[in-house]
Specification:
The protein is rod-shaped and about 95 Å long. It is 49% helix and 0% strand. It is mainly alpha-helical.
Length: 126
């Protein structure tokens, strides 16, 4: 070890820091800065991709699950809540077709594609 290194090592030890601890701190700081830069770049790229084409449930067919049949007419139901539900389905089919139905009607025998499918037949009445 040279005289300068020896003096510097003694100074660091007298300050309570060994050369190894100082190097470790520097490495940790460099890694932390690199991680922050990587996250920033990732966020910038993802925001650029999402801003290229705004997504709107009103007109974006990529959100739809594929139900094309018309809903039943709300006028055929005498119960006001059922009629209201079918009217809403008629008003916003693009929204309901983007939602997965969790009542397992996508299986036999119904094979529904989305929540909207429940309103093309009597399934939504209960």
């Amino acid at each position: 070890m040279s005289r300068k290194e020896n003096i510097k090592s003694k100074q660091l030890k007298s300050e309570g820091k060994s050369p190894k601890k100082k190097n470790l701190i520097v490495i940790i700081l460099v890694l932390l800065i690199a991680a922050l830069v990587a996250v920033g770049v990732g966020l910038k790229l993802s925001s650029k991709k999402s801003s290229d084409k705004p997504v709107s449930a009103d007109d974006d067919s990529s959100l739809r699950r594929g139900e094309t049949r018309p809903t039943l007419s709300p006028a055929q139901f005498s119960h006001p809540k059922i009629a209201e539900a079918y009217q809403i389905a008629k008003d916003i089919p693009h929204i309901l077709d983007a939602l997965y139905c969790y009542c397992f009607c996508d299986r036999k025998p119904l094979y529904h594609k989305s929540v909207l499918s429940c309103f093309v037949d009597m399934h939504a009445t209960g």
